[in-house]
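Pilot study result, target chain (612 residues):
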Amino acid sequence: MTRIFVGIAAALWAGTALASGPVAADNPVAAAISERQLEDEIIYFVLPDRFANGDPRNDRGGLTGGAFDHGFDPTHKGFYHGGDLKGLTAKLDYIQGMGVTAIWFAPIFKNKPVQGKPGEESAGYHGYWVTDFTSVDPHFGTNAEFKAFVDAAHARGMKVYMDIITNHTADVIDYAEGESTGYRYRSKGEYPFSRRGGPDGAPINSGFAGDDNADPANWAKLTDPTFAYSPVVREAEKSVKVPAWLNDVTLYHNRGNSHWIGESSVYGDFSGLDDLATEHPRVVAGMIDIFGQWIDDHGIDGFRIDTAKHVNPQFWQAFVPAMLKRAEAKGIRHFHIFGEIAYEEPTATLAAQVMAESRLPYALDMGFAKAAQMVASGKAPPRLMAEFLQQDAIYPGGAATALGLPTFLGNHDFGRFSMFLRQMSGSDDEATLLARVKLGHAMMFLLRGVPTVYYGDEQGFISDGNDQLAREDMFPSTVAAYNDNNLIGSDATTAENNFDTAHPLYRLIGELAKARSTSPALRRGLSSVRAFEEAVPGLLAIERHDPATGQRVLAVFNTGESPLSRTIEVSYRATGVAPLLGQCPAAPAAPGSVTVTLPPFGYAACILETDD
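Predicted structure:
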């Protein structure tokens, strides 16, 4: 007896993914948006500046002068290119056509337009150099246009995730000691809070009992910030930060640049950016107020937290519950919070550790990205992914927590998935590279976690490196370093508009999204590793089981260049097999086993029918 599963996600696909315009306000899908669980989402991550230019009048952010004043130079990979909220809103149909249910975008808060030493200047097009946490950057539009974007997304049944920063602000504070120090990090041991400029300096901050004492009365005694460096701010920038409390230099660590290890990882300036003292109760309360207000005013559905591991755990222990409470009061039952815990190893260890210490509910799945890159490229055998998935048990809450981790293949910091595959496989053959890229996307959609597509991947973008080199324009680009790349799966370049809904990767993502959205096991199913090649590319087989519905799906992948046929173990409850995606066997080979046949770089998702 075959069971058929049709849930909210299936209705979402049918009702909105192929829609040509907004869903009516009384549409049951739109009404149920806050009821959708985190595991039901399919995320699209975009940098607004690089996506679509809906209003060229805001390209310079209302500023005058040259590019070093307003930050706009579409020929330079490190400056503003003109994308904005109006452009993003106008492209919602394109985004939703892939089956996307949630949009996460880089920060849209007002940034310092340009910063950097002479000859090293770049602009805040990416959004991570915030001066005003209460306003949309004029390069992107206005607060009203942001509200219009959120409303338009919600009308389509799509959620909106903001990228937020609490660790630092733009680089406004300098040190009187100057560049001669190299802005070397000065530790708490060498430069205690109680002495100016080090242990031999004059006594300061009498009675301050250390930064692990959260009592506001204790922090009121930390009045002199010159314990390590002597912070100074140019007259023109003394009031540039909003809210005004952010202009108080005693609310920053002021210890010099982080070297990303130990104490400096939390207390050091992030590449010169002003590092907030997130232990300070004023900072905790201020950040809760700032981001709670964005929930109250706009009804957003989640936060991606930048540089989460560079903030002390106690901050998150206060911040996260406060945000969930504000969301609940707004009627948002499943508010998605996930932190950036950056590393480049195929392991869950660091993410699980930081989540446990900080009580962060979820983290971007960095380990999955690395495992997918290595396995889909053939650099590592499927065993690597199998063993990575078996680490799900170490997350706080166990394997069920892993279902809500946003998984991705590449991003704006590390580089694009296709670039990693080309580098790791050592091959430039376009057909093979396209096949490997498709395989990686199948892994992201069919394995556990919340699939997160990096904008442009659906158009075959292939970066030359990380950071600025992986932030190409979707609209016609004038950046030479972008335009010399041949895109995967088409004859296009980034010198053209790239919103082709017939692109093979765009269509593939839509097919994978439809399979996932109609299958509770692919969205919420726990994983059982059924088979994998140990030392060479080849088979990976994972059975997904959703206890609530009973549905079981077998996801199989061939990471090798040759076809394969294998007979593998499955649940003994399986009495039949039905295809969900790709080539599936007609029936079990025997009780508790099926025979799968896959082409080179092939994949399939097969429903294991049961009688219960």
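One observation from the pilot: The radius of gyration is 25 Å. A full batch analysis is planned for the follow-on phase.
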